[in-house]
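idk why but the lab printer keeps eating my pages so im just putting this in chat instead. protein + zinc ion:
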Amino acid sequence: MTKFSLPLAALLSLTFGAPAQAITIEFDYTYDTRGFFTDTLTGAPITERRALLDEAASFYSGFTDSLTAIAPQAGDSWSVKITHPSLGGPQITLSNLDIAADTLLIYVGGSESAPGVLGFANTGSNLTASGSDAFVDAVTTRGQANTVGEDATDYGIWGGMIWFNAANVWYFGSDASGLSAGHPDFLTTATHELGHILGFGEADSWHTQIDEAGYFNGTNAMVVYGGPVPVDQYGVHWAEGVMSTVDGVAQETQMDPSTTRGLRELPTALDYAGYADVGWQVSAVPEPQHATLFGAGALLVLAAARRRSTRA
Ligand SMILES: [Zn+2]
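predcted complex ->
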């Protein structure tokens, strides 16, 4: 006889087996070869810009989950192809990386491209894994159940890449008071692009909640919005101009397709609800650090300056 009957043992396993942890977003500058985050003459980090990436990640510090470590052992291997984050087009194959539990690894860089685009992000392609079942599961789902296909309800990813368009005259500041017309806010774009890697417009569990009429029907989002939420034509953002709130103050959603240059838009209540519907445990939504920007003055600017910049 064992001490516990099977059902009790199973219950204990469910309760204590996988405690949710705050997720960690780790940036990798290996492919930052065009000087966006690194001084190419000296090799020194451009600390102001890197600190803003960390600040962007902090808006997701209230997300908890239990993501399995990707830790290849003898006989295990995996790879994924990503767009070169400083060159845009060419693909890089990443092989047999170690990624810690509850951590997403994100390769970043930038280069000059056609004006208008601010940046793009993706989670790579051609993901392959072989070895033990547990290892393959860690690579493909991070130990999350039901992440694939039309009935997906959760999401688990290794990480991804973000490219920033260096042709923009960015505002690289944390203090929103330094924003000025015509200059895109780097913190806003970085936070937005991280959102895609976190599954917004990317996860199967996101796409499966969009109906044929182009509305997102996630439970959390519908509670916040008051009904189905319109999405853009590709189903990867909220529709342009969808509004929500930051700390009770009206703001255009961060995860609509674009942001007026010169404005800061941080994750709104509706954006966070969307992440909860993707499968993140959004247990404690972080307090945005610059919510006071969105007072009456900022809204007047929004109404007056509808010159938009696109963002993938
Ligand atoms: Zn986007």
